[in-house]
Specification:
The protein is an alpha+beta fold and 171 residues long. The protein is 39% helix and 30% strand.
Length: 171
Amino acid sequence: MPVNIMLDLKFSRIEFVAMLLFHLVAIAAVNQIAAPVLIVWILRILTGLSLLTHIRRLSGLSAEAITRVRLASSETAGSEGGEKQCLLYYRNRLQPADWEVGYFSEALIVLRFSFEPAHRTLGPGMRRRHLLLLTDSLPEQQARRLRTGVRFHTRGGEANRSQSAQPKPAR
């Protein structure tokens, strides 16, 4: 059964709080090292810039942010799981890509994308991106459709389903 899902990603408060906490811990750790004051201040500034970069990416202001995804899969004869294509809104343009499920649970879904770079300045070969979807990263209806699609229509979902529903031995 084919999958066709449009995902409009939104600001994740869970991811924001986690990133803020990790960066504050990093700044506290920098304060504890025995180093010259100049090095400590440079490390504090770099940690703060890292936090600002994460906030820009989470809010969709960065060109590196993925803000919209259209996932599609089709079952073709002779292929395991069918063909999986998507369109990413990445670097302020639509980018075609192949996708697969990297991890699936009720609280977190990791999607992996492989695509040709739009400009060859990045070098030959495929680019890879990962998208972490927490429970508050999508509107509720889209999250439900994605979980259903992942669980029942993709190879990653079949692996999870087959582990939980082992066939019972015949008597």
